[in-house]
Design brief:
Strand order of the largest sheet: 2-1-3
Largest sheet: 3 strands, antiparallel
Number of helices: 3
Helix content: 55-70%
Structural class: alpha+beta
Order of helices and strands: HEEEHEEH
Length: 146
């Protein structure tokens, strides 16, 4: 039944376009039926009023409303994009912070550090090089961790 009235309205508009007459029939049990042909018994011809034409100001108002809705949709999409970028940047910052803290911790705890020479051998870092690596680790933590 919830589709009855919209369906009737749609059919009514289709019949109006075709120029057909609409008949309203009331049955013996009081049920009302609408159709394009008269039914047995009592039928009333319905002549619906023509739909009013839209004024120019209504069309202009609709155009402005559509423009505002499009602007809102664009603004909303931009805000969502900005939030997604901010979330991605925050995630990257957290990952880099964790990596920097882990590296700093390993450098601080290490008794000695080495680098790999071109021939593949290990070369122990002297105190100045060790201090430089530790300073870089601290700088990375300061850069990525607030």
């Amino acid at each position: 039944m919830r589709y009855g009235l919209p369906l009737f309205t749609l059919l009514l508009l289709a019949w109006l376009q075709a120029g057909a007459e609409i008949y309203k029939c009331t049955g013996a049990d009081g049920a009302v039926q609408y159709g394009d042909k008269p039914c047995a018994g009592h039928a009333t011809i319905i002549t619906p009023a023509a739909a009013p034409e839209a004024d120019a100001h209504v069309a202009e108002r609709r155009r402005r409303t559509d423009k505002l809705l499009r602007a809102y949709d664009e603004e909303h999409a931009e805000e969502q994009r900005a939030r997604a970028e901010a979330a991605a940047a925050l995630q990257k910052r957290r990952q880099e912070c964790a990596r920097a803290r882990s590296f700093q911790s390993r450098v601080t705890r290490a008794g000695s550090l080495y680098r790999v020479a071109e021939d593949g051998s290990r070369v122990d870092l002297n105190d100045a090089e060790h201090a430089a690596v530790l300073a870089k680790a601290r700088a990375d933590v300061a850069r990525w961790c607030d």
